[in-house]
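Two proteins, back to back. First:
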Amino acid sequence: MLSDRRQRVLAALIEEYVSHALPVGSRTLVQNYRLGVSSATVRNELSHLEGEGYITQPHTSAGRIPTDMGYRVFVDDLLANEAKEAEFDADAKAAAQQMRESASELDELIDQTAEALTRLTNCMSIVVPPSVLDLHIAQVSLVSMTARRVLIVVVTQDGQVLNRSVEFSRDINTERLGRVQTLINQLIAGKNAREIKEQLDANQAEVLSDELLKIMLGEVFACIKEGQGSHTHALGLSSLLKQPEFETSQSLLPLLQVLEDDTVLLQILDGTTQETTVTIGHENKQNELSGVSVVASSYGVGPAQGVVAVIGPTRMDYEQVIKAVRAARTALDSE
């Protein structure tokens, strides 16, 4: 448990680092924040915070930056602060009213909500409609139309029928196609997107070893994505990639691969509740997301629940992002 003074110093350091993305020294904190203590005291507090793992020094001669642990203490204090809570709610209601007034239907509201989230946070925004989270696959059929053309037919448990035609450069054996159809149904029938992702992860070796199975699974997912009228609305990837944390391809490419996969995005948001949740850096299950934070909340009631979320660097403006996510949830809850 941090003392009040140590917590104020940590909060000031995080605010400064969020604003400028540069390591922060004690002199900057004394000059820019009314901490009510001397430079020597601030240096001493920074030393304690570093020793306890809340901040770190990237270089010997540099200032300090927050760790995931430091951000966690800061965010928990933010969420537990009753005055901030009231401010969040007031701002959320006002912003939500603006979103609702400018949209005539749910799909338009979802689009505008995603755009507003990106604009307000300068991060990547995700709005998942309830139908996407609850879409279960009943059956997949692979129909051989010609020696080189296969028709994919996907039937969902709510009665939707989706189809897609695939052309191959060589003949496809019908018996092998039948075996692949059986395998695909064993892997994904009766499951939603999150469960499918878990099943494929568990059977990754089998999928990768069968080229036709791998191709057809990709085409099935493309069929589902094309056929769904309302799908995951993800905007602002370019805003996220402009952040200084992602200037190098080494940090950028793994992140891109994860964020471009819809099933992974749904897995990231799995278990989201109407309480605003903040997952910071290494708290994310995927190693590729160790440099980002996810602020998320569900909206709607019962089975008709969707998710609204923002993905940004761990050096995000948590207060602003939490306000924006709550505003989006409030707007979408009314529909």
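And the second protein:
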Amino acid sequence: MSTCFVAVALGGALLAAGPGVPPTPSAPPTPGAPLGTVRQQVRRAKADLASHASLPEYHESPFQPSEIVERIHALQSEQAWAELCRELGALPDDELELFEDTVRRPEHARHLPCAGKLLARIDAYWKASERKLASAHPIAAAPTLPNRPVAVDVSKDAIFTDGHVADDEIVLTFDDGPHPTRTPRVLQILAAAHVKAMFFEIGRNASAHPDVARGVLAAGHTVGSHTFSHPNMARIDERHAESEVESGDASVSLALGFRPGDLPFFRFPYGAKTPLEQGFVSRRGNTTVFWNMDSQDWKIRDPHKLFMSVLSELDRARHGIILFHDIHEQTVIVLPHVLAELQARHMKTVVFVAGGAASTPSPSPAWER
């Protein structure tokens, strides 16, 4: 019996080999255990997201929407795609939206006859969510905030957590971009508020979207590197980690038109590192930027709940470096409200910039446009 037939027979058979009952939503699958039918996996996606306390745990889950759809893709079965369409169509909107990015991927959308309808539903869901947040927390006028650049000597300031900023100052940071559509919208929101921020870009994303990466830089924001592929650095060997740092820096630098090695700021994925890795980054002349406030925007998908989470972090820390991701729709929706809240609290924004000739990036003639 063929793999494809096994995968789609009887209304959706198991997508992983092995006997037994699919695990409950709160428990991780055991090695060799089945992941469940298409229906079971699709309906598990939201519960699985909620069950993980940290982003690295979630990224290792086989029940991320991207992992589920990639397994369907690997089957090369139109029956499996049709089954996925049925199951996605049956989801409520707040579960369907989890699949937005993977449905939008051209290599998936061309196999999904339902893609247009699903994406229309998702767009309507986000618009309704935006209206709900605006109704609960209306913005009287577009916020504008004081913004102060702080020059950093990367030869002396090796590691920042709260950035040593004043009690009423916030450093806005965005990880994991550039995203082809959401990063430009984040830039528009920041520009309207006269705010500069820091963007820590993944090398492969900068290579895929160099025009967006250059747009971040052209808007006056600080761009740092965030490795090439976003691994958990604490779980890989030293040689692999050094390669991730170097290739990530090179990819982002080349996208921006800089010489590799010129980017002064670096952020470890998940904030995970070993002492050896930190030493390597510091010896390269990079200032490592962590954070003392986490928006949790990777997990909190509802914009209103995300906004309340950010308020809680502001109440707790009152100053420092806050972590967002410019790859999430809920982050784009909530950002104007966060800026308005900062203005209402009479807070200021800070952006770190490279200070000193040795740490200031300069375009390479070889890559000038």
